[in-house]
Write a structure and sequence with these properties.
Layout lengths: L2 E6 L4 E8 L4 E8 L2 H13 L10 E3 L5 H6 L6 E3 L2 H8 L10 H15 L11 H34 L1 H7 L9 H9 L3 H4 L5 H7 L8 H38 L3 H5 L6 H11 L9 H8 L4 E5 L2 E5 L6 H17 L1 H12 L4 H22 L5 H4 L1 H4 L8
Parallel strand pairs: 1-4, 4-5
Antiparallel strand pairs: 1-2, 2-3, 6-7
Length: 393
Amino acid sequence: MTVFCGIDWAERHHDVALVDEAGTLLAKARITDDAAGYHQLLDLLAEHGDSPDDPIPVAIETSHGLLVASLRTGSRQVFAINPLAAARYRDRHGVSRKKSDPGDALVLANILRTDMHAHRPLPADSELAQAITVLARAQQDAVWTRQQVANQVRSLLREYYPAALLAFQGKQGGLTRADARVILTLAPTPAKAAKLTLAQLRAVFRAEYAHQLPGVEDVFGHQLLALLKQLDATCQAADDLAEAATAAFHQHADSEILLSFPGLGPMLGARVLAELGDDRARFTDARALKSYAGSAPITRASGKKRFVGRRFVKNNRLINAGFLWAFAALTASPGANVHYRRRREHGDWHAAAQRHLLNRFLGQLHHCLKTRQQFDEQHAFAPLLSPPTEQAA
């Protein structure tokens, strides 16, 4: 008998439902979110035929957490169902719009019973790949947080201290530079900056600008110092996580292939590997990878109307790293630059041309990872790099 399991995930407890191939409810339970609850779930699955050789597939609305980690041991297929998709399935079982946690668990189990072929199980990534995913995502979050705090600092400086913005604008890193943070900590107000003795700093900070009232300027300085502490912490966190992610990335067997691609360095390569994983069965072909990344266009056709546009449902982390990859490749790869320029000549905007270049890179990456080959510029962009043939007179 084929059995399917659905789990409605919550913070403190989880509702479980088991159904057979006919949709009959075999068992239901509520387990706690601790080791005892996980053992209770495994015992319940074992009572209904779960074994290492034939594990019961599980549907749940999350892809992370200790519960998912416990279920993913061995060869069990765990399906992370999008909550929006689960809500659509709920309407198939009733029109009253009623909702309950046990009912949602039953809906999830029935999703696998009827449409398991339409959903992808969580990839069977190696332990190292999963560790890289944690580090790369954490570093990306730290970079985003660093930029948010830097934007707050910039907005505050515009209120009372425009000379500081002028001093660091145009320099790589801007206000996140270590020297910028040190100087602003030593001189958080224009009045204190004007007392600096170095000639270069004196020329910038002693120029004529409008000032807030002295008392108001002082409290702005206190606010700036508080923000600088946050900025220092986020900059240090981003640097530490980048170092750890880079070290883990270099240990992975796929790192040499990824680094052979133009525009991919260790940190950006770690981000790409974090989202792709190393389960070669995850993407059946290059088209599936491109759709997952959001680089492949989507077509909407109905009657006489036909529209081709970009995807909105995608892996946002991967597409973010992909745009950085494509942009960096413009100066690192002659073929990528020619491809981008031709797309612009055909009418693509900058973002569309970059997305088209990324789409091509992802197809090449899928091939290289599958065949264990490194990137070859001449082979990848042969039609674009070959000289034009002279027409016969």
